[in-house]
Amino acid sequence: MKLGLYFFSSFFFRKLMLILKEDVKNGFKKITRWFKGINIFKCDYIFLPILLSGHWSMIVMCSLGNEPGLLHLNSLKSTTHLEAEEHIKCFLSLEWERQNNLESLKISKKDLLELQMQVVEVPQQPKDNGTDCGIYLIKIVDVFLHTVTEGVAL
To answer: According to the model, what pLDDT value does residue 8 have?
Structure first.
């Protein structure tokens, strides 16, 4: 079995936030070129780096085509990214509309909008260290990938 992984650029989320505040439909068409040729509903894991208020974390979208899940990998429990969750749901809903016109998807748009982001227990950086979130994130993603790919071809 081959595992489908996709990593968005670290600039994607910032661009997504901008277009959702401005012109959603036309803006969305512009950002689809960032993942041209990728059907996110066929990927096992999609990684989306998030930079909000100077803090890096990662959203992992899991099995969007079947039994979807949203995971939040965050090395600072004191930060929540609820606004990120809403932006991701909006993105998934728009992409569902676009992909569903091309082929019938197994998941409904309603199911995507009802997803609840699960905060994953990960190593936490010290509260007095507000600068190493990127390093923590790299290690957390590394461990996550080793865990989910054990015995699976990439």
So the answer is: 96
Residue 133 tokens read as: 């979130």
Helix axes 24-31, 12-21, angle to 10 degrees: 160
pLDDT, tens digit, for every residue of 53-108? 888 999 999 998 888 999 999 998 766 677 889 999 999 999 999 888 767 788 88
Q: Which fold has domain 5-148?
A: Adenoviral Proteinase; Chain (3.40.395)
3-class SS of residue 96: helix
Measured in whole angstroms, how far is the alpha carbon of residue 25 from the centre of its chain?
Answer: 20
85 Cβ partners below 8 Å, 6+ apart? Answer: 70, 72, 117
